[in-house]
Amino acid sequence: MAGYTVQKLTEVENQGKNFGFDETDFELRMARVALDCVSCGISYERFAPGWRMPFGHKHKQQEEIYVLVSGSARAKLDDEIIDLEPLTAVRVAPETMRAIEAGPEGAELIVVGAPNTGPGDGEIAQGWWSD
Q1: pTM, whole model, 2 decimals?
Q2: DSSP state of 20
Q3: Is residue 102 packed enough to be buried (19+ CB in 10 Å), middle (13-18) or exposed (0-12)?
Q4: Which pLDDT tens digit goes with each residue over 68-81?
């Protein structure tokens, strides 16, 4: 077995539709398994203009780093809302509730999580970010 794995993130299955989201609103391409990750996970997320996650989430063990690649976005982290611009990275501790909202031109993010906890580490709160 090679000491590396190559995977185009846009070719990983879009899990957003498996969670009931319209593909025009939200793409979620989780590449942890496709890349054979041992210690971390990585995802590509694309948000339609103005689209907000309808839930917040946090983790038991996994911290995440969100990197805005293009567009603009806001992140709600517990009770604080911060603005993101391209190439801004935000580390989020496991116990911090979080959600993302795209700006008027939409948003593309890369999200890295560690340690690799697999399924069951996250806790979802529907409707957590409401105005």
Answers
A1: 0.93
A2: T
A3: buried
A4: 999 999 999 999 99
